[in-house]
């Protein structure tokens, strides 16, 4: 029996490696975090930092080289039967609502497919009723269910993707850049819907974005990734109020502030310098080549992710210096 305060999803020492002609790409290196029921963890970093690969590894879409993924205490890595049982509880929503929906299927078939595959309903009438309810849950007019994806706007297609993800009544939804392909005005609507669904349905989210501004309003905690590693994990307020890692500071400096006076006075921290090749063996801190605060030790010692303030973890030698 899992204790009530135990994490719903627990990821520990996760590594994903892809062999290529140029060497082994270390896409995810030793990533560890926990998700508690009802929580939203924002996972942020530049393109290629390993965020999406982390999510795909959790749901078994890419092979895990090392590490552990536990759902409600049950190990899923190297356990195909457990992963198959867990898959309905772990759903992914992808960035591109244009590419992730089969253009030849009606919305009704797209949303109803998981229910059919997992034999969750008996009979066409029951299936149709469930599909209608799911579409209404995400704010879509159920009378449009016989139409095809191309007849909907980007925001509506992302709602269709969400309805499909909700069909099997998941516990955790891994949202991979769910609003990045949408116009800013539509982004706000989808973010509001996600927050509303989380509260109403008791969902738990891993919310992936390349932009800290997007995750700010939806995350309880935020984890920052760089070159396949977590470099800072903290509550949203701690991360925005007093970031510990220079990479987090640089990402934050790029988030616009609504007040024009404050915005004009702000200094953007440039992310110059070369990013090491993902196939390279890195000595010292992986962020060193772009870090304006690097000092001698950074060249030789790789900083471990440590809790420098209560609940605020960072992989940087600086907090130990001050
Ligand atoms: Fe910069 Fe050094 Fe901290 Fe790495 S360990 S982020 S190089 S100060």
As a percent range, the share of helical residues equals 25-40%
Q: Structural class of the secondary elements? A: alpha/beta
Give the overall pLDDT as a whole number: 93
CATH class of the largest domain: Alpha Beta
When the domains are counted, the total is 2
First-last Cα distance: 44 Å
- Second CATH tier, the architecture of the largest domain: 3-Layer(aba) Sandwich
Q: Please, what is the CATH homologous superfamily of the largest domain?
A: P-loop containing nucleotide triphosphate hydrolases
**Strand/helix succession:** EEEHEEHEHHHEHEHEEHHHEEH
* Rg calc: 21 Å
Strand percent estimate: 15-25%
Q: Count all strands and give the number.
A: 12
Strand order in the largest sheet: 6-7-8-3-9-10-12-11
Q: Which term fits the overall shape?
A: globular
Q: How many helical elements? A: 11
Largest beta-sheet characterization: 8 strands, mixed
Describe the structure.
By secondary structure, the protein is an alpha/beta fold. The protein folds into two domains: 9-241, Rossmann fold (3-Layer(aba) Sandwich), CATH 3.40.50.300; 247-271 and 281-322, no CATH class. The protein is built from eleven helices and twelve strands. The protein has helices at residues 51-58, 80-86, 107-117, 124-137, 154-166, 184-201, 212-216, 236-241, 246-253, 260-265, 318-321, and strands at 9-20, 23-35, 40-44, 66-71, 74-75, 90-93, 172-176, 204-209, 221-226, 229-235, 306-309, 312-314. Strands 6-7-8-3-9-10-12-11 form an eight-stranded mixed sheet, sandwiched between helices. A four-stranded antiparallel sheet has the order 2-1-4-5. α6 (184-201) links the parallel β7 and β8 (204-209). α3 packs across α4 (124-137), α3 packs parallel to α5 and α4 crosses α5 (154-166). The N and C termini lie far apart (44 Å). It binds iron/sulfur cluster. Iron/sulfur cluster is lined by residues 245-246, 285, 287-288, 291, 293-294, 298, 303, 316-318.
């Amino acid at each position: 029996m899992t204790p009530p305060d135990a994490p719903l999803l627990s990821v520990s020492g996760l590594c994903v490696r892809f062999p290529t002609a140029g060497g082994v790409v270390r896409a995810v290196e030793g990533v560890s975090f926990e998700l508690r029921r009802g929580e939203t963890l924002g996972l942020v970093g530049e393109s290629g930092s390993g965020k999406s690969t982390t999510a795909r590894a959790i749901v078994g879409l890419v092979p895990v080289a090392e590490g552990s993924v536990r759902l409600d205490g049950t190990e899923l890595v190297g356990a195909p039967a457990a992963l198959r049982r867990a898959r309905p509880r772990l759903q992914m929503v992808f960035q591109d609502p244009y590419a992730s929906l089969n253009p030849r299927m009606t919305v009704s078939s797209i949303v109803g497919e998981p229910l059919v595959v997992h034999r969750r309903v008996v009979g066409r009438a029951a299936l149709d009723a469930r599909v209608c309810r799911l579409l209404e849950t995400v704010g879509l007019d159920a009378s449009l269910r016989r139409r095809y994806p191309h007849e909907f706007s980007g925001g509506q297609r992302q709602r269709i993707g969400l309805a499909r993800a909700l069909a099997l009544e998941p516990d955790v939804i891994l949202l991979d850049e769910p609003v990045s392909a949408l116009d800013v005005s539509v982004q706000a609507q989808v973010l509001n819907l996600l927050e509303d669904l989380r509260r109403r349905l008791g969902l738990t989210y891993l919310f992936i974005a390349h932009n800290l501004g997007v995750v700010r309003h939806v995350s309880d905690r935020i984890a920052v990734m760089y070159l396949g590693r977590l470099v800072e994990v903290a509550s949203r307020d701690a991360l925005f109020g007093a970031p510990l890692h220079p990479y987090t500071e640089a990402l934050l400096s790029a988030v616009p502030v609504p007040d024009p006076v404050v915005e004009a006075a702000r200094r953007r921290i440039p992310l110059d310098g070369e990013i090491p090749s993902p196939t390279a063996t890195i000595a010292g801190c992986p962020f060193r080549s772009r870090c304006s605060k690097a000092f001698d030790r950074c060249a030789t010692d790789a900083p471990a992710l440590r809790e420098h303030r209560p609940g605020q973890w960072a992989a940087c030698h600086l907090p130990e210096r001050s």
